[in-house]
Design a protein that fits this description.
- By secondary structure, the chain is an alpha/beta fold.
- The protein has 16 helices and 20 strands.
- It has three domains: 287 residues, FAD/NAD(P)-binding domain (3-Layer(bba) Sandwich), CATH 3.50.50.60; 119 residues, FAD/NAD(P)-binding domain (3-Layer(bba) Sandwich); 132 residues, no CATH class.
- Strand 6 and strand 7 form a beta hairpin.
- It holds the Pfam family NAD_binding_9.
- This is Adenylate cyclase.
- It comes from Streptomyces fagopyri.
């Protein structure tokens, strides 16, 4: 946890560092307010508390700065940012982390600034992408420390852009709970503070959260303690203590997504290994990683070429009208039955639009004829249409095969599986870097469009998010090349699909469906995935108590919010007038706090709506007669 007070920056003169007088969580005694004295902003001015000062909190603050000249002028306002980590980057994007860890997007695809493609009521305030700001090659994958620096700069620029009567205070600690009724001021208790912060409004931009262990993880952890094993539960890899994973020893790793990529990097290059071309030269300090998952393969590589030509006109079959119809159904909707067919048709439209317009030589009929029949067809009719119009099966979109590439694949030995998985990785790299397969890039655009629409449906369950990440949010190509090199060096071993873990006879044991009957034993197990906190299992006491006191939650355990502006709902569906929430802990979660330029950014739309609702509330509150 960061313990350094945030001092005022030259470009952010209206920011103050606000600290508790009581002992700080780390035991230090920062300067600032004193016992019994009010916190900054308690002297009668309106106050807004934002809990979470990472990218989402910074994005909300940017929208406040953009909308304040229109909606809130002359009344004065204190904005309190509560976060133990530095504003801008927050925990995940803090500047104090390994330089070996990269962003998962090209620098040209990362922005914190809106543009005219964002459907919002507030003004567009242009700003640079990461690659423009850092003078990077647009196709480079910047390290996360540089992204943290960019986010800090965005925060400082935003604070400087606020009207002169709005002041920002950063409290480098955690918020513990919120009190106060619907009609009065809110009270936000802070860790280490003797007095709560008074607030007219509270916005929770908490970001990704830690979770208490579920039943399976509790059992594995207890077994590890009883038998002197190593068990690392789901966590943010950069925060995991990897020292217990000893050189040369086998380590079972469950999870093949981005958390695994970080783990792989920290246990190889992070321990002194290096790459010479396509070859990995071990340092001798690496463990041997045995990795598997439900799919048994890594996420698809990032696409390694630029888009050219006409973009598919999206949304087409899954847009606001369809979302509105689904929300209005009296009996609700089922994702697989009601939503997925629309999503599948939308992604197929993006795929075939690109194939027919960019690669017409690989089709048998004119696009206009195909488009007409595709638009009016159902599942079976579309499959027949595609079979007749697209001769090569490799040019047809098969989402089921993409989702589970090892279904039905069987190998007779782990050695055979290693060869097969290296070939799979090579094939994926070749395809994702070849513009002859630009239909993949069109499907990526379709996935972004669909994600933006799904935000309006609230909690749709976890399946979609995993599917989206597998296809659209995979690692940079160089990381997959490193996987291949580590496999050839014997540092990385593949376990295949359907991975299961058991604990017996003093060890952990992994098995899977790709090599029937085979098992691998180890004294260490790493769960390479992010925690999945619910409002009941989150380690965040504020969110847990909010739920205990009556805030509504979805079946997946997400905090329920009003999709219009992010106000927190109670269990009767009534929005709290003074409490808002944005981010992955809510059922209005988007695909990220920052996004590609010119893609409509759902998070930007949400930030703008919440900022405007908050400013209007505070303005009207300030205009009420007193006495």
């Amino acid at each position: 946890m960061s313990t350094h007070p945030v001092t005022s920056h030259p470009t952010a003169a209206r920011q103050t560092a606000a600290h508790p007088s009581a002992t700080h969580p780390t035991g230090t005694h920062p300067t600032g307010t004193h016992p019994g004295k009010p916190h900054p902003g308690d002297a009668g001015r309106p106050a807004l508390v934002i809990v979470g000062a990472g990218p989402r909190g910074t994005g909300l603050l940017e929208r406040i700065a953009a909308n304040a000249p229109e909606l809130y002028a002359g009344s004065g306002l204190d904005i309190h940012l509560v976060d133990p980590y530095p504003p801008g980057g927050g925990r995940i994007w803090r500047e104090e982390q390994s330089p070996l860890l990269w962003m998962n997007s090209e620098a040209q695809d990362v922005t914190m600034f809106t543009d005219e493609t964002v459907d919002m009521a507030g003004p567009v305030l242009a700003g640079p992408t990461l690659h423009e700001w850092a003078a990077l090659d647009g196709h480079a994958f910047a390290d996360r420390r540089r992204q943290g620096t960019y986010l800090r700069w965005v925060y400082e620029r935003t604070v400087a852009a606020l009207p002169p009567d709005i002041t920002v205070h950063h409290h480098p600690c955690r918020a513990l709970r919120i009190g106060g009724g619907h009609d009065g001021r809110q009270l936000v208790w802070l860790e280490g503070h003797a007095r709560p912060l008074g607030a007219d409004l509270v916005v929770l931009t908490l970001g990704h959260l830690d979770a208490e262990l579920d039943a399976e993880q509790q059992e594995l952890a207890a077994y590890a303690r009883a038998h002197d094993l190593v068990h690392l539960p789901p966590d943010f890899t950069a925060d995991s203590d990897l020292a217990a994973l000893r050189p040369g020893e086998p380590v079972l790793v469950r999870g093949f997504g981005l958390a695994f990529v970080d783990l792989m990097v920290l246990l190889t290059e992070g321990r002194g290994g290096r790459y010479e071309g396509e070859t990995y030269l071990p340092s001798g300090r690496e463990p041997v990683l045995y990795v598997g998952s439900r799919r048994g393969v890594p996420y698809h590589s990032k696409i390694g070429y630029s888009w050219t030509g006409e973009r598919p006109p999206l949304p087409r079959f899954f847009g606001p009208d369809q979302v509105g119809e689904l929300r209005a159904r009296p009996g609700g909707f089922d994702f697989r039955r009601d939503v997925w067919p629309l999503v599948e048709k939308e992604l197929g439209f993006a795929h075939y639009h690109r194939l027919f317009t960019a690669h017409p030589e690989r089709t048998r009929i004119a696009w206009t004829d195909f488009e007409e029949k595709y638009g009016s067809g159902d599942g079976a009719e579309i499959r027949a249409l595609v079979a007749s119009a697209v001769p090569d099966p490799a040019d047809r979109l098969d989402l089921a095969a993409l989702d589970r590439p090892l279904d039905g694949v069987r190998h007779t030995s782990y050695e055979e599986l290693q060869t097969g998985l290296r070939a799979y990785i090579e094939s994926d790299l070749t395809r994702r870097h070849n513009p002859a397969h630009s239909v993949d890039s069109a499907v990526f655009l379709g996935l972004l469009s669909v994600y933006g629409q799904l935000v309006g449906l609230g909690d749709i369950g976890p399946w979609w998010h995993g599917f989206f990440s597998f296809l659209a949010s995979g690692p940079p190509g160089p990381r997959l090349r490193q996987m291949r090199a580590l496999s050839q060096a014997g540092i990385l071993r593949f376990l295949g699909a359907g991975m299961t873990v058991t604990a017996a006879e003093g060890v952990f044991r992994a098995a899977g469906t790709t090599v029937p009957g085979a098992t691998v034993e180890a004294r260490a197990l790493v769960e390479a995935r992010l925690p999945h906190p619910t409002v009941e299992r989150t380690r965040d006491t504020l969110l847990r108590e909010l739920y205990a006191e009556g805030a509504a939650a979805t079946p997946e355990g997400l905090l329920a919010v009003d999709p219009a502006d992010g106000r927190v709902l109670d269990r009767s569906g009534v929005p709290h007038p003074r409490r808002f929430a944005l981010g992955p802990h809510t059922d209005a979660r988007g695909s990220g706090a920052f996004t590609r330029p010119r893609t409509g950014g759902p998070a930007f739309r949400q930030n703008d709506a919440t900022a405007r609702a908050a400013l209007v509330f505070l303005r009207d509150l300030a205009r009420r007669p007193t006495g």
